[in-house]
Hints:
Elements: H1 2-18, E1 29-39, E2 46-47, E3 50-54, E4 57-69, E5 72-79, E6 82-88, E7 92-100, E8 103-109, E9 116-133, E10 139-141, E11 144-156, E12 161-170, E13 173-178, E14 181-187, E15 191-200
Antiparallel strand pairs: 1-4, 1-15, 2-3, 3-6, 4-5, 5-8, 6-7, 7-9, 8-9, 9-11, 10-13, 11-12, 12-15, 13-14
Amino acid sequence: MTGHKGLLAITTALGLIAAPALAQSQGDWAFGFGLGWVNPKSDNGVLAGGAASVDDNTQLIITGEYFIVDNLGIELLVATPFEHDVTITGIGYAGTVKHLPPTLSLNYHFPTRTPFKPYLGLGVNYTTFFDEVSPLGVLSLDDSWGVAVQAGVDYMVSDRDALRLTARWIDINTDVFLNGAPIGTAEIDPVVVSLSYVRQF
């Protein structure tokens, strides 16, 4: 029995040595670089009397996270400008818009003894629209504030490096104007799926 206990202790110790250091400690920083796919919901509201549709787009994303206590971090998401075509039933192509969606979140990372570390986040999104182009006239969209929620998982490839898969839902609604006159509200509310490389310092 004593031999079995000794073997178990040795095996456990070796497992802990071999496993990646998964805990994010207070004061740590984590930076991520990857691609984010913005997929707006299917029903994007009514514009100019017709059903609006906003297409998807993929861009580079960057995240920075600071751990205020162990396993709890404040994260800022930024990206290169996303670009979307807008179509309206009965009109067809109505324009193209670009936007930037910086998002600030509070994330809790679940401590595990495996290379997989899931996390959940809740935050606020600010989306600003620009470079609107339309064959119908002068198109403009108001900026948007909304809630953002996310779930993700890190797969640790070393004690400081991980591959991260994340799914976010962001509340994005914007009032739309054509030649200065309101034509409706675009309800974008996208799911954002991203794959990133994350380095912890």
